[in-house]
Amino acid sequence: MNRSARRILFPVLGVAILIGLTIYGYRGQYADSEFNLVEFGKTPVQNEGRIQPMDSVARNSLLLIHGERSAAFRDGERMLSIAWLAELLFTPEIADNRAVFRVPSQEVRSVLGRTARLGEKQPNLFAKLFGRSGKDYLFSYQELSPHLSKIQRHANQAKRAKRIQRSHFQREVIQLWSAVSTYQRLKLTLRFGEAENQFQALLDLIEFVPRGKTALENYESRKEYRKEDLNRITEIGTIYQSLIEGGQFQPIPTDAPEGNWEPIGNLLTRLMDQRPLHPSIPVYARLIDSYRSGNPENFNAALSELHLSIAEDERESIDQASLEYFQNRAAPFEVSTYGYAFAFLAALFSWRVWPKTLNYLAFSLLCTCFAFHTIGILQRAMVSDNLPIYSQFATCIHSAWVVVMLGISCERIFKNNFGNAAGSLAGFSLLIVAHQVAELGPTLSVVPFDYSSSGLLAAHILAITLGQAAGFFAGAAALAFLCIGLATRKLGIQQNRQIAQMLFGITCFGTLFMFAGALLGGAWSDQTSGQFWTWDPKENGALMLVIWFAIAIHCRWAKLVNARGLAALSLAGSAVATWSWFGADMLSAGYQSEIGPQNNLFPLFIFVGIQLIASLVCMTPRRFWPKPEEATDPAPKEVFINE
Question: Among 10-24, 68-82, 93-107, 556-570, which is the least confidently predicted range?
Fold first, then answer.
């Protein structure tokens, strides 16, 4: 195949593969129902301080309760998150019997008065490695109900302990009570009282409130009043107060200047104050009744009317929710993960067969995935009205973007396939970590600080992200160098010089940004708290990485190491970057820690161990490595002598 044909065919092939994956994933998320749950998933609500589609509420809630973004029950039935949420909101009596609560801890199950059910299997090694428990240990809300007081009591006791000192049982029981609380709040969110016909209950309430208000005012002013009206308005007030306090999200737009939406429970307050009701309120009541009566035609009509009523005042919210819904369904980061895996395999096999063809395929896939990755980041920025690099998930996806960019740049400069291999391997690995972090909770939330209020903070976060990404890319390039050097005879003098130049350049790049990031972080800390350096574990981790980068640079400048020695230092530096980045969070060490000890440290130890072992392998004498195919100079006697 000539060069011009490859330039046309392989980019087209890469784009076709990724578009096919996107369409496959998008189409696979349609709920098999006559009710238009797709449009229901686009309905905007306010949750956790920001506007988001109902689909995001469903995904994040089910993730907390079930551990996955789609439900898998004991009988093998699967249900999409939006279908599960619709059932919970509109027919909670049915949802209560779904075994959706995952309780993997045997200690917590003993609190519930039972151990594993007949037929349940223990988690396998893969499940333990990634913190999963399969489809086992599922309970319904109905089964948990008799034990709620015990669960709450144990959770409250566990919360009194410091986070770093909590036992496995304490962490698991807190997690279970959080899931139960979320479930209960969701049940109360779209309710107009206890009546079966919600729309009629709304009409009755609107008709009764003037009489109830009169009775209440007469009672307070010691005038004659109807006792039945007073008792009823008091009872209604108690119910709607519980709806205000217990609702999970706010579905009603308001004209408030701060932009906060209202829960259904504010309906009574508006009626008592004789303020107008938003047009979406009666539509929600009809929506509930249509679903409960099994009338998809009326449900879909009410849903269309609901979107129109919200769009009258909140057209921007409709567009923002639709964009986030599309991102949820298209899953650009998941598609990029698969693409990076294919690109790495193509780069790996190119050293054995069809070197030019597979190399070009790997580069084409890498560039195409990079474009998809970029689109995903831009979508997140548009949804959040910011560039949110403030959480572990956000840091992972942005670091993955940086390492792929470095891989493409190195491949364009050196054209030796190491850029393809390193960029795709590092990008794939970081996105896998991002997917694992995403299982801990929502990946989009209100930014806890305003970047615009401090340029130092924004610059610090950006610089640290670039520096850590450089450390991961250098480690991936060194690992690819080690694998190719041991498995093939392709590493001659020219290839060794190129990989040494690449690793040295990336190390310099990382040193510059990590050092600048540490200084900027100290300046911001001094500006806000009066202390430039607090010896926080994350600050210490950044300092350790700067020192390690500096050691690698000076060893190369002093000609103490060759390509293999620099690769060994890069692998160890990658381990340092990993531990400084995730170690402090997983151990809950320091005030800047984010993830907490509920995560499994085992994968972190495995990764760091592999990096350190690979670093030691790089330092084995050259006589144990395969002899290159091309003629080379006599091998040096010491591994750390420069060629």
Answer: 10-24
Spatial neighbors of 214 by CB under 8 A, at least 6 apart, are 225, 229
Work out the pLDDT band at 161, boundaries 50, 70, 90. confident
Please tell me the distance from the alpha carbon of residue 429 to that of residue 306, in angstroms, as a whole number.
42
Q: Tell which residue, 98, 91, 80, 87, has the closest CA to residue 38.
A: 80
Q: Which H helix or E strand runs over 264?
A: none
Q: Residue range 304-313: average pLDDT?
A: 89
Which residue's structure tokens are 């309120």?
281
Residue 350 is classified by DSSP as T
Axis crossing angle, helix 315-330 with helix 3-27, rounded to the nearest 10: 110
Structure tokens given for 268 = 């009574």
Q: Is 264 exposed, middle or buried (CB count within 10 Å of its CB: 0-12, 13-18, 19+)?
A: buried
Can you tell me the distance from the alpha carbon of 64 to that of 48, in angstroms, rounded to the nearest whole number?
14
pLDDT at 509 over 90: yes
Strand partners, 78: 72
**Rounded to 5, what percent of the chain is helix, strand, coil?**
70, 5, 30
pLDDT of res. 638 = 40
Q: Which amino acid, one-letter code, is at 589? A: A
Residue 488: the pLDDT is 81
71 forms beta bridges with 79
In 111-173, where do the E strands start and end? 138-140
- Cβ contact 335:365 at 8 Å: no
Provide the percentage of residues in the chain whose pLDDT is more than 70: 83
**Distance between CA atoms of residues 103 and 157, nearest Å:** 19
CB of 626 closer than 8 Å to CB of 489:
yes
Nearest Cα to Cα of residue 538 among 604, 595, 496, 454: 595
Model confidence at 289, pLDDT cuts 50, 70, 90, reads: very high
Question: Residue 252, SS3?
Answer: strand
354-387: per-residue pLDDT in tens? Answer: 888 888 889 988 998 999 899 988 888 887 765 5
Nearest to 437 by CA among 480, 400, 470, 477: 400
Measured CA to CA, the distance from residue 423 to residue 418 in angstroms comes to: 8
Question: Tokens 């999409």 correspond to what residue?
Answer: 80
Residue whose token pair is 């009988």: 75
Q: Is 628 exposed, middle or buried (0-12, 13-18, 19+ CB in 10 A)?
A: middle
Q: What is the pLDDT of residues 7-46, one digit of tens each?
A: 677 667 777 777 776 776 655 555 567 899 989 999 999 9
Cα distance between residue 53 and residue 321, in whole Å: 5
Distance (Å, whole) CA 125 – CA 131: 10
Q: How do residues 429-465 score in pLDDT, each as one tens digit?
A: 999 988 877 766 666 655 555 554 567 887 888 898 8
CA–CA separation, 25 and 367 (whole Å): 21
Q: Which residues contact 328 (CB under 8 A, 6 or more apart)?
A: 53, 55, 56, 59
Q: Give the span between the Cα atoms of 202 and 259, in whole angstroms.
A: 25
